[in-house]
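Ticket #4471: structure export looks truncated?
Reporter: QA, pipeline team
Priority: medium

Steps to reproduce: submit the single chain below to the structure queue and open the exported record.
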Amino acid sequence: MKDKNPFEGHSYPLPKKPIEIAMDEIKVLKKTIVDLRKELEPLKQDLQERKKKLELEEAEYEKIVKNSWW
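Actual output as written to the record:
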């Protein structure tokens, strides 16, 4: 006699289909990524401003050293 699959014929309902659960998780992750990008934007701009300022200071320092008498 063949062994019957004990799960065959039984239904185990889920509140949502697995694909729907996965899609909801993807939506949450996308929203998190967008929020993090929004938080990073001011930091990127600040970093660019600091780089420009540092480059100007270095150029100024090179001028001073080049024009110094020693």
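Status: closed, not a bug. The export was complete when the record was re-opened. Leaving a note from the reviewer for reference: The mean pLDDT is 86.
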